[in-house]
Design a protein that fits this description.
There is one protein chain. The mean pLDDT is 81. By secondary structure, the protein is mostly helical. Helix content is 40%, strand content 7%. A hairpin with a 6-residue loop joins strand 1 and strand 2. It is elongated. The protein has a two-stranded antiparallel sheet. The longest helix is centred in the last third of the chain and has 15 residues. The chain has one domain. Helix 2 packs across helix 3.
Length: 92
């Protein structure tokens, strides 16, 4: 196993397969995955790593409990976004 966190890999709870630590920085509109602390805390000192890389404010934000919306609302929002992106055929 590598001593560099960026080169470590583990199973992603969201995707269901192995990903490198760096992948967690490419989620959700180029933001850090909100589950990064939960996934990596047992492997190395992820809080210090994130604080050094992104700042203590980002770590505090990740540690604070966030309001979860029901899955159905999230799905409905995704459907609406897809509808807005859909290209309408010419002639309408």
């Amino acid at each position: 196993m590598s001593d560099q966190p960026e080169q470590r890999c583990q199973r992603c709870k969201r995707l269901g397969h192995e990903v490198p630590f760096e992948y967690c920085f490419t989620q959700e509109s180029d933001q850090v995955c909100p589950e990064i602390l939960n996934c990596w805390w047992e492997r190395f000192d992820v809080r210090t790593c994130l604080a050094d890389r992104l700042g203590k404010d980002v770590v505090k934000e990740l540690e604070s409990p966030r309001q979860q919306q029901p899955k159905i609302l999230g799905l409905l929002e995704l459907i609406e976004q897809a509808k807005k992106r859909q290209v309408k055929p010419s002639g309408e």
